[in-house]
Amino acid sequence: MRLKLSHRTHYGFDSPPYYGLQQLRLTPQDTQAQTVLQWQMEVTGGKVECSYIDHNQNHVTLISFAAEATAIDVTCTGEVETTDVAGVHGAHRGLQPLWAFLQPSDLTRAGNGVRKLVAGLRDAKISDIERLHRLSARILEAVPYALGPTHAGSTAEESIETGSGVCQDHAHIFLAAARLLGYPARYVSGYLMMEDRVHQDASHAWAEAHVEGLGWVGFDVSNGISPDTRYVRVASGLDYREAAPIIGLRYGAGAERLSVDIQVQQQ
């Protein structure tokens, strides 16, 4: 499937920041499930300082804010050809060792809520893939998808306690639970073509677990499936903070206004 994508992020400030710097993980790369046919990034109100591949094999662009800028826009457009590989991303690559993905982070530390979710799964006489799909289904049943109750800093345990969440929360819970079961697991950010709309106000997130004999395998808890041809993978990491589309810092400028417009459609 050929997908056409557009991702525009706009920041507006009450007054020009004294200083601003952002890391952008907005550039997809070729994988066995996708081929990037074209991709462009345009920045207004700032400039590209450098780009590099990080320890998770993500393409990172570093941008600074222009002097006296009261707004900054980042617009990415491109086309990606996708192939259905049943969610299998494949062998581990990158400078981050595989064992590191067994370690909890502040957002994915397992507590009583996660332990209850995995109860009985470790000893079940089933395949790794079946075990992980059952885990995914348990998470969605315990934490139905809903906008609003959680935020970007919510931990896996907090989301379970809240009782509902979004794709980021589902991914964090999956990571905490999969690691508790002994599977290296990581967070993935990217795009999903929706069946009912083209415009979206946020990118998508899912999780991957490393399964012996297959490598990394994706699980989208929010939709109860493994990624297919509607998905475009962009970045991965231990949790949201290592794979976020945009993170950064700024000094000054007072209040900030943010708007995001994403379009994903079949070409």
Question: Would you write up a description of this structure?
Answer:
The structure is a single chain. The protein is globular, with a radius of gyration of 19 Å. It is built from 5 helices and 14 strands. The chain has helices at 112-117, 128-142, 156-162, 167-180, 240-243, and strands at residues 2-13, 19-27, 34-44, 46-53, 59-65, 71-82, 88-90, 185-192, 199-200, 204-211, 215-219, 231-237, 246-251, 256-266. The mean pLDDT is 95. The protein has a 5-stranded antiparallel beta sheet with strand order 3-6-1-14-9, with no helix packed on it. The protein folds into 2 domains: 2-82 and 246-266, Immunoglobulin-like, CATH 2.60.40.2250; 88-236, C8orf32 fold (Roll), CATH 3.10.620. With 267 residues, the chain is of the alpha+beta class. The chain starts with a strand and ends with a strand. The longest helix has 15 residues, at 128-142. A hairpin with a 5-residue loop joins β4 and β5.
